[in-house]
Amino acid sequence: MYVENASAPARKSVTVPGLHAMKAEGRKIVMLTAYDASFASQVEQAGVDIALVGDSLGMVVQGHRSTLPVTLDQMVYHTAAVARGLSATLLVTDMPFMADRDVSHALEAGARLVGEGGAAMVKIEGAAPHILESIHALTERAIPVCAHLGLTPQSVHKFGGFKIQGRAQDAADRVVSEALAVQQAGADLLVLEGVPTVLGERVTKALHIPVIGIGAGPHCDGQVLVIYDMLGITPGKRPKFSKDFLAGRHSVAEAIQAYVADVRSGAFPAAEHGFN
């Protein structure tokens, strides 16, 4: 049974303007996935800035081969569970596959994830015209948006697998153009996944909104990992951009605290976690 930890030290709530201030001041932002109240409580107590309810739950929780089978109802359910374990950490949740197929569906999904799930921000993949319209429509209605570019998992079939994006010059230029477009549409945050380190640095410098990297090198404004990857419990091979923070430590709490400390200091990610 989940019981709130009343002894946890009080923290100042993380806000969207606060994240923008962290970028401006050069302070690293720490983001980590969570899918239930118990892990959310551990994330909260470790001082993580942003908890992400990722549709990655389709793979690491449900056992699917991709994120595509995850439904909006499931995302609302997991978001609400995570919300019960948080107090100061900002809660971001993914729009599942095809929930953003047009503006009306994106607005409906955003309203449910915020209203029923308790999210403070929704994450949406890509920069196609209808996505840019949806970002604008959501932010106009006071629903903050985190964009997601680079290796976008919902495009796995189009990419032909989970492949690094932006290696060729024209592809890199396109990622930068898309990043500027989602910022212009109103996104307050960008997750940049699976791109060369030099491109991660280029995008981060080009934007005034924070850029959170996952396999995008050390120059991003912050980092995010799937919590099961950084605990070393995801079945199969761990992604190159991740690290087993539980190895050599005695508890999940210690592992998350080590992750937070290494992101804050810039020790993680190291060169071996990036791509050329």
UniProtKB/TrEMBL annotation:
It holds the Pfam family Pantoate_transf. Keywords: Cytoplasm, Magnesium, Metal-binding, Methyltransferase, Pantothenate biosynthesis, Transferase. It comes from the Bacteria. GO terms for cellular component: cytoplasm. Belongs to the PanB family. The active site is at residue 193. Pathway: Cofactor biosynthesis; (R)-pantothenate biosynthesis; (R)-pantoate from 3-methyl-2-oxobutanoate: step 1/2. Gene3D superfamilies: Phosphoenolpyruvate-binding domains. This is 3-methyl-2-oxobutanoate hydroxymethyltransferase. The gene is panB. It catalyses: (6R)-5,10-methylene-5,6,7,8-tetrahydrofolate + 3-methyl-2-oxobutanoate + H2O = 2-dehydropantoate + (6S)-5,6,7,8-tetrahydrofolate. 3-methyl-2-oxobutanoate binds at residues 55-56, 94, 123. Binds 1 Mg(2+) ion per subunit. Its main location: cytoplasm. It comes from Dyella psychrodurans. GO terms for biological process: methylation; pantothenate biosynthetic process. One of its GO terms (molecular function) is 3-methyl-2-oxobutanoate hydroxymethyltransferase activity. PANTHER family: 3-METHYL-2-OXOBUTANOATE HYDROXYMETHYLTRANSFERASE.
